[in-house]
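Researcher: Here's a chain I'd like modeled. Treat it as a single chain, no partners, no ligands.
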Amino acid sequence: MKTNLLIIVHSIDVTNRILVGFCKNINRDFFDIKVLAHDGIGGKEKDLSDIGIEYAVANGDIEIIAQAIKKWQIDAIFMIRGGGYTQLQFEIFSRARTINPSMVILENNFFGRYDAKSYPFIDCSLQVSKMMLNERYLKEGGQFNFAKVKILYHPVDFQSWDKINITESEIKDFKNKLRIKDSDFVIGKLGRPAIEKWSDLLLDMMPYLVKLVPNIKFIVQEMPDSRKRRVLKSKYKNYFILLSKTLHDREVALFYKTIDVYTHASKIGESFGMTLAEAGAFRKPVIVSSTPKKDNNQLELIDHMKTGIIANHPQTFARAVEYLYKNQDIRIQMGEAARAKIENVYNPTKLAQQLEKLIVETLAQKNQAVDPSARERYSKVEYYPSEAEILAYKDEYKKRLKQEFGKLSIWECLINYLNRPRKFYFKLRDFAEHRFGI
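Model: Modeled as a single isolated chain. C-alpha cells:
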C-alpha cells in the first residue's frame, strides 16, 4: 500500500533543483509521487518525465488543482514555497482539507515567512535553515514547537553532478576560450543578474586583490547590466570574465571545475545559498560575506576557516583570496571539508528519508493506514538538526556574526568610512534599478 504524495511548487522552474532532488530520492516503494505547478512551467519538465514523475500545470486555476488532488487520491501534500500568505496557496490548503479532512499538509518554507492564516492547515512547517527559523520565522510571529516546526535543508544532488564527466581537456579548452592562462588563479560567482542579489563588495575588493594576486581572473556569470557597464569602463576590466547565464548543467559543472575558489556576496544575503552548497559539492572553498540585517544563512552553510572564509570588507575579502592562493594545501583541505559537509548534511537521500518519516508519522497520528514496514523503516531515521541543535543555534549565530578574516588597519577603516557616501549613492541607484528598472 503506497502513500499518494503530491509535491506542489510555484512553477517547474529550470532552477528548481530542489524539486527534482526530492523526486529522485523519495522511496517509490512506499510513495507514489505526483507534481503540480500551481502557476506555470519553467524548464524542468523533462527531468521529471525522465524519472517517471507525472505532473500537472494549473496556471493559477484552483479548480484544476482540486481536480488533480481528487483524481490522484492524494494522502499528503508537500508544498515548496517562500512562505507568507498568498490567496491561491491558502485556497489550495483549504480545498485539500475539504477533499480529505485527514490530508497531511507540509510546507518547505524557504524564505521563513510566517503565514498566520494558513498555519491551522499546516501539519508541519519545514524551514530551510536554523538561521531562517530563529531570525525570520519566529520573529514574524511563528512559535517553535518541534512537533510542528522542523528544519529540512534543500538537497544538493552531488551524485548527479559527479556523473557529469568534465575532462581536463575540456577545462583547458574552456580556459583557452576565456584567455585564462595556466598560471592564473581563478575565482568565480554564479547567479542571476538581479541587482538586489549583487553586492559591490566583489568590485570594491579588486583594487586590493590585483596587488596581492596579479594573476587573478574573476569569472562572473551573470552580472547586473549597471555593473557590467561599470566594470567595462574601469581599469580592472581585463581581470574580469563576464559570461551570460547558462541553463545547461554541463556548462554549470564546467564553471565550477574551472574555478579555484568560489566567491560570493549579496545585498540581501541567502535564505539557503544553493550555489555556495554546489561549490562545496565540487570541492571548492567559498569566500562569502555576512549580511546580519538580511538573510544570513551563508554563516550556517559555510564554516569559517574550515569549509570557507567569512570576509566582510574589500580589504579582508582580497586578503582571503590571497590566503587561499598562497596556501594550496589549505585550499584543498577546505574543499574536501566542504564536500564532506555536503554529503553529510545536505545529502538528498537522508533529507528525503526525513521527509518520508514525517509523512508516515503524521499519517499515523491521524489514524490513517500506513504500511507497517514503512513505520518500522522510518523509526530508525533521526531528524536533523534536532530540537536541541535548533535552539542552540541562537547563541551559535551570535558567535558566527563576529567571524571575519583578520582585522582592518586604522587607515583601512578610515578609507571605508570615507567611502560611505559613495556606497549610499549606489544604494539609491540600485533601489531605482530594482523598483523602477531605471
